[in-house]
User: Which sequence fits this backbone?
């Protein structure tokens, strides 16, 4: 590869090519062009080197964006999995709570049934018990008076 031209000898890239193949100045006047094959080849090599450099910079930037996208997708996937796991845990906790509430409800109903049974027993036993206590009280009073 030939040595690139110094910066002060580079063609002005802001100039538009004319219809005749040469470059025009900003005033529309054709610029003098040289048809030296060595200069043309060197200019082409320089332009290709600049394009390659810019292309490589663009690829680096695109690769950074792709890497960021992949990292972001990984993080989103991780977050989605964590949310799914939390939902599953919440569902299990909900089911466990419903099971415990069902057990408590059953136990309360059982206690209510037992209390009703005891009430019936006391309803039958209590009158006899109070009668016996009254009789005992009367007997003790009689014994005290003698």
Assistant:
């Amino acid at each position: 590869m030939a040595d690139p031209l110094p910066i002060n000898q580079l063609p002005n890239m802001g100039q538009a090519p004319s219809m005749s193949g040469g470059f025009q100045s900003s005033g529309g006047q054709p610029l003098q062009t040289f048809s030296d094959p060595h200069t043309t080849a060197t200019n082409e090599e320089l332009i290709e080197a600049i394009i390659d450099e810019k292309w490589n910079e663009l690829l680096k930037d695109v690769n950074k964006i792709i890497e960021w996208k992949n990292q972001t997708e990984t993080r989103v996937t991780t977050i989605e999995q964590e949310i799914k796991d939390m939902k599953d845990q919440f569902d299990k906790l909900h089911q466990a709570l419903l099971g415990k509430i069902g057990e408590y409800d059953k136990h309360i109903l059982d206690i209510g049934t037992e209390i009703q049974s005891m009430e019936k027993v006391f309803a039958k036993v209590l009158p006899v018990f109070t009668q016996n206590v009254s009789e005992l009280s009367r007997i003790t009073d009689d014994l005290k008076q003698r």
